[in-house]
Specification:
Blueprint: H1 2-8, H2 10-29, H3 32-35, H4 39-61, H5 68-73, H6 78-96
Keywords: Membrane, Transmembrane, Transmembrane helix
Length: about 100
């Protein structure tokens, strides 16, 4: 079913991968967006970022997790929700800084 979703929405997969690449480069360029946060906020945000960016790159490469719950969390719509939430958090950090 996930493969069928990817075939129907190739633009979404490409867009998610490009957004993830831009976010990854942005964080390499300005690591203070996350590193200046308190540890209690930083660790969940790092986890969200790993999930969001990793899922976007996994989908673009055509990889799927074997376990059903992990496959569900790394394919749309959950992976897109995580990517959107991570993007919003970073944009809020930029506006507030």
């Amino acid at each position: 079913m996930e493969t069928e979703t990817r075939r129907r929405l190739p633009g979404v997969t490409l867009g998610a991968m490009l957004l993830a690449a831009v976010l990854a480069l942005w964080l390499l360029w300005q690591p203070a967006l996350i590193s200046t946060l308190p540890m209690g906020v930083r660790l969940p945000l790092i986890g969200l970022g790993v999930w969001a960016l990793g899922a976007a790159f996994m989908a673009a490469m055509g990889l799927e997790a074997r376990r059903p719950w992990l496959r569900r969390m790394t394919t749309p719509p959950w992976s897109l929700v995580a990517l959107g939430a991570f993007t919003l958090v970073l944009l809020v950090r930029v506006v507030m800084a």
